[in-house]
Amino acid sequence: MNILLLGSGGREHALAWKIALSSHLSALFIAPGNAGTAMCGTNLAILPTDFEAVKKACIEHKIEMVIVGPEEPLVKGIYDFFAADESLKKIPVIGPSGKAAMLEGSKAFAKGFMNRHNIPTADYQEFNMDNYTEGVKYLTEHSLPIVLKADGLAAGKGVIIAQNHVEAMAEFELMLQQSKFGDAGKKVVVEEFLKGMELSVFVLTDGKDYLILPEAKDYKRIGIGDTGLNTGGMGAVSPVPFADEVFMQKVKERIIEPTVNGLQKEELDYRGFIFIGLISVENEPFVIEYNCRLGDPETEVVLPRIENDILEIFTAVAQQKLKDIQLKIDSRAAATVVAVSGGYPGNYETGFEIDGLDILNEDDVIVFHAGTSLDDENRILTKGGRVLTVTAYGTGIPEAVKRALKILEFIGFEGMYYRKDIGYEFKSKEEI
Ligand code: AMP
Ligand code: GLY
Known about the structure:
The chain has helices at 10-20, 51-60, 71-75, 78-83, 102-105, 107-116, 132-141, 165-176, 245-265, 299-302, 310-318, 397-408; strands at residues 2-7, 27-32, 42-43, 65-68, 93-96, 124-127, 146-150, 159-162, 188-192, 197-205, 210-212, 217-218, 221-223, 227-230, 235-238, 270-281, 284-291, 333-340, 365-369, 372-374, 380-382, 386-394. By secondary structure, it is of the alpha+beta class.
């Protein structure tokens, strides 16, 4: 098969790596990709949201399936663009329709969906300029902390956890009156704060059936011990020790099944990944958010634990035959540690050469590129905040993390920083 993969981060390198292992692959194209994806296929200088350019590439390279990494093209309706185009409609797109992608594209839509299908989530109210004064009153009486969420896509920055009422009110005003998040913040969801451990559960659905992929936990803060600013993700581990059989059964019955059934009942066309951000409150699962794609860096530990041929799985999704697939999961743990540019998530410089990538011949370790590029002399340079991530396997999380950290000692670029405590809560091997 000829495959086109859209995106350019670590998630896309992991997808490209997994697709390149498939016995069904003829040619893989990645748009726009990075220096890592260039080792798995051919990068095309096309933006995933430029649907006309994507169409041209599909025709030129006789593409037979499109896999969408990031949310933006999905929320902008790439699935529907293909379905409505005579020359593209036979090419399956792995990802939901624009309407179904609203599970990520609109927090208010997602909350309404959860309410309609009795899916456990934090209590909430939504506000806009029309009921602004009502919102102010609601905030004044709300227990602390208060969670405020911009309704639309805000590049992971749209959630504010206010510790007091003054801060909550200021944020509310900034979002609604001063368009802090532009159109994304024209509506604000105000919700109850839930306290507990977070994890990410990934479901792949063909619109009828579903597979539950290995769960993962990501580490969003820049500093040791989950301190400092939020980032796109500094590392991840899979499996998640507290997501035991009893917990996952609750997730399945109370969250996954009602979600997949709800999509069907509401006739939302969904053939793709559902990323469910969960919080375990005294061992009871609650949904924090839905995303319509895989997570990053979670993908870099989830895909390495899947033993199946990924194109067989994607073909089953496209043909609505997912019920015939038996998922085979590697029993080992996987951990990934992200190396970022100095200064990230604030200002940082790029264009530094990355050393040490050629000496990697360790078993059970994979380096996924995120923000990298190739220069004219084929040198690999830094190109983003999150530069690369090292994934390793282990009999338990501590061993996997230790291996990833060992490899990172050999890799270097100016200003490189990474967290040495990924998986710190899961100390002993017996925990998994
Ligand atoms: P989101 O952008 O929806 O993933 O939210 C970003 C982060 O905010 C989540 O990963 C949680 O850590 C936190 N968060 C969001 N909603 C809540 C909530 N209701 N209670 C506690 N923490 C939350
Ligand atoms: N790691 C969280 C995300 O991909 O949204």
